[in-house]
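Lecture 7 notes: from sequence to structure.
We start with the chain below.
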Amino acid sequence: MILEEARVSILLFDGVCNLCNGTVNLLLDLDTKRRLKYASLQSEFARNLILEHHLEEETRGIDSILFWDGARIYSKSNAVLKIASSLGGIWRIFGLGYLVPGWIRNKIYDLVAKNRYRWFGRQEACRMPTPELKDRILG
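Predicted structure tokens for the same chain:
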């Protein structure tokens, strides 16, 4: 099995997207309890996680962000809200986002995802983790 730890939460992100990489950098700072691990969607780790847990159908067409809580995969606005609430503390306030209907949240999410390269740019390759981040960035 790919994940030996119980209930590991993993953010799968577009490794060439500047918005996604900026978000990961912010989360690395905010996640002081080190609850989250990270892997680019382009990585072998992400591909293996999706295959191992038979998530191909649920993740088809998602190329920006996914969140695995150790039991279930979340996409689009649900992923964003789950990630924020997983930080605990004041960040749980983002749970109020569930009061907005999912179709509205996902329309906004899709607009940003569709334009993320144009608005924020992209990199030529996925980032390489620094030695101090090796245990938090997978694959």
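Points to note: Residues 1 and 52 are 8 Å apart (CA to CA). The mean pLDDT is 88.
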